[in-house]
Design goal:
GO terms for molecular function: DNA binding; DNA-binding transcription factor activity. The chain is of the alpha/beta class. The protein is built from twelve helices and eleven strands. It folds into two domains: 82 residues, Arc Repressor Mutant, subunit A (Orthogonal Bundle); 207 residues, D-Maltodextrin-Binding Protein, domain 2 (3-Layer(aba) Sandwich). The protein is elongated.
């Protein structure tokens, strides 16, 4: 059995179309289709069937796509053992993640990893919670987050490592009357002018909770994805917002205060496909991110 056939079926199961597989593997659609026909001939079963204008996996195709995960993970484990036997594994690790977390976690990790011969390729992004897990198809490590648990939405089947568990605080201008308080409640803040995030982003659920507890709508002046922009707006008195306590760098003119009475915390989680999580350099990179998070 050709492992490449199994890998192709897993890619098709994850990406959903021949075109998407071709784009991800830098091939033409006809080349992917030809490999599917070859796999069907070699394995003696039908692996795909028509589905509208595209195709979908048959029961046999889905069975083999699921088996591919175990096969690829086992092969990666063997490769890791061989790398460790040779000594000092080196290579490139591709990391993608939410801006506020990778800004805090990745820069301090670069030098120690480079000293071990590990190069990091970093991409920052800001998407809705469930979209982070999908990025694992094209990256070695995805740094995502969740307000509910250490298992971000859509991350089933991925190897997950909690890097940070932190409260989400209310960010206030330093001269704001509420800045003198040690703890805030939903009733304290609901009537403020808010710098919120777009709907669908995790922090939006906190403001939804404030509205639910108080029974009053929040007055939203801005919707901003980038935490640094939130900080800048808060600093000039444009409103109040939510910022993570541990991964927010100190900024003049901004103070953070805990919010009690609603769920206001998040988990920052590293996620990888099982086969990639077995690579020695990926394991070393995750360990370094955990070290940075603890310091």
């Amino acid at each position: 059995m050709d492992v490449r056939h199994l890998t192709l079926l897993r890619e098709l199961a994850e990406r959903g179309s021949v075109t998407a597989v071709a784009d991800a593997t830098h091939r033409t659609g006809s080349a992917v289709s030809q490999q599917l026909r070859t796999a069907e001939r070699d394995l003696g079963v039908r692996l795909v069937e028509p589905d509208g204008r595209g195709i979908r996996l048959t029961d046999a195709g889905r069975l083999l796509a699921e088996a591919a995960v175990d096969v690829e993970t086992s092969l990666a484990r063997v490769e890791r053992a061989l790398d460790e036997f040779r000594g000092n594994p080196t290579g490139t690790v591709r990391i993608v993640g939410l801006t506020s977390a990778v800004e805090f976690l990745v820069p301090p990790a670069l030098a120690p990893l480079a000293a071990d011969g590990i190069e990091i390729e970093l991409v920052d992004t800001d998407v809705s919670e469930e979209d982070y897990a999908r990025l694992a198809a094209d990256h070695d490590i995805v740094v995502g987050h969740s307000l509910l648990s250490a298992h971000p939405a859509g991350s089933e089947g991925l190897v997950r490592t909690t890097l940070v568990r932190e409260p989400i605080d209310v960010a206030l201008p330093a001269a704001h009357p509420l800045a003198d308080r040690d703890v805030l409640t939903p009733r304290d803040v609901v009537d403020e002018t808010w710098i919120a995030v777009p709907q669908g982003f995790p922090f939006a659920a906190i403001l939804d909770g404030v509205e639910r507890v108080t029974g009053r709508p929040a007055r939203i002046a801005h919707r901003v994805r980038d935490n640094q922009v939130v900080e800048a707006l808060v600093a000039v008195g444009a409103g109040v917002g939510f910022l993570p306590r541990s991964t927010t760098r100190p900024r003049d003119g901004v103070v953070l205060r805990p919010l009690k009475g609603v769920n206001a915390r998040r988990w920052v989680v590293a996620m990888s496909r099982p086969d990639r999580a077995e690579r020695a350099v990926v394991r070393r990179a995750v360990a370094e991110l955990r070290r940075v998070a603890r310091t």
